[in-house]
Write a structure and sequence with these properties.
alpha/beta; seven-stranded parallel beta sheet; three-stranded antiparallel beta sheet; 14 helices
């Protein structure tokens, strides 16, 4: 707060301007309580409150927000404006991929602690090292922040890596006071026929109903080359599928749904073999939060936010600057 006397009293009698300024100075700059101001000036506490309000209205008191070091509000606002995002969170980190993941994880945990107000139905992708980092840093909520945490894409795979995916889902649910709901199937199967037989199962039908009612999603953004966690899980795409995706100019994926540089879904045989939420249903989720960063993800992140796959991004400062680089800008396509 700053108190300014000069030029602030237009349309207010001089004697009252002096009193308003004195009250504002005592309260904001000397730290005197309103009750003590009332006693000192022989006026009521109600009048002190009215005078403080008037000080703001006529410009005697002006609020100035001082941005702390490491906070990038202007950068966040530029991202929100450029890509029509609901929110952008930019993390002040400069290091290798592990440091970036850790910092984004901390920012993601803080974001969830601040925005989970109860009643949420959260969808989450299971094969993300960044989301594991979020859960590892999240504090238990005192009041339940969600009703359910629902897996968005199949997670059955290699036992050691499967344990990480289960911990991601179960521990998040525990921390936010929600019920965990799993997809008891692989994320990627060999044929479309196998997928059809799986999704008609009663358990999968129940999960699919949950997908229809999600209020938010937490996802990573993948590149065509799978992350070590996904590769080790047994759910990564085969080299032949990778070749087809690259030939179709794929740059990244959300929940195993691959897209090109403009964010358009790549129509391929792979889509018919994914056991997970379909793109149309995913896009109806009101808040779709992606946590991703690092140089190797720049093209995939740009495509994901350009194509509207996600509408909240939590990323690092170097990635934010890259996303705003005019030379690399990709025009936003029409909605699918």
């Amino acid at each position: 707060m700053a108190v300014h006397a000069a030029g602030a009293g237009r349309s207010v009698p001089d004697g009252r301007v002096r009193l308003i300024t004195k009250v504002a100075h005592m309260y904001h700059e000397q730290g005197i309580r309103q009750a003590d101001i009332a006693d000192a000036l022989h006026i009521s506490q109600t009048k002190v409150s009215r005078l403080l309000k008037r000080a703001g209205e006529i410009g005697i008191v002006r609020t100035v927000v001082v941005v702390s070091q490491g906070v990038h509000l202007a950068l966040e606002q530029s991202l929100e404006s450029r890509y029509a995002l609901r929110e952008a969170v930019v993390v002040d980190v400069d290091g290798d991929e592990s440091e970036i993941i850790a910092s984004i994880g901390s920012a993601g945990a803080a974001y969830l602690e601040a925005t989970l107000t109860g009643g949420e139905r959260i969808g989450i992708s299971p094969w993300s090292q960044t989301l594991l980092s979020v859960v590892d840093r999240l504090h238990p909520l005192r009041v339940a922040g969600a009703e359910r945490v629902v897996q968005l894409v199949g997670g059955v795979g290699e036992r050691a890596v499967q344990a990480k995916a289960n911990r991601l889902l179960s521990h998040l649910a525990e921390l936010v006071g929600a019920e965990p709901i799993y997809v008891q199937a692989p994320g990627l199967v060999g044929t479309a026929e196998i997928r059809r037989s799986l999704v008609t199962d009663a358990a999968m039908q129940s999960v699919a109903e949950e997908w229809q009612n999600l209020t938010m999603a937490l996802v990573g953004i993948g590149s065509v080359q799978p992350s070590p966690l996904l590769r080790d899980s047994g759910n990564a795409i085969a080299p032949a599928d990778q070749d087809q995706l690259l030939a179709a100019h794929a740059v990244g994926d959300v929940c195993q749904r691959f897209f090109d540089a403009t964010g358009q879904l790549i129509r391929s045989d792979l889509n018919s073999r994914v056991v997970g939420i379909d793109p149309e249903t995913f896009r109806t989720i009101p808040r779709r939060i992606a946590l991703a960063g690092g140089e190797r993800k720049h093209a995939a992140i740009r495509a994901a936010i350009t194509g509207g796959w996600v509408n909240v991004i939590i990323t690092d400062v170097a990635t934010a600057h890259a996303l705003l680089d005019e030379d690399q800008r990709v025009e936003r396509p029409m909605a699918l």
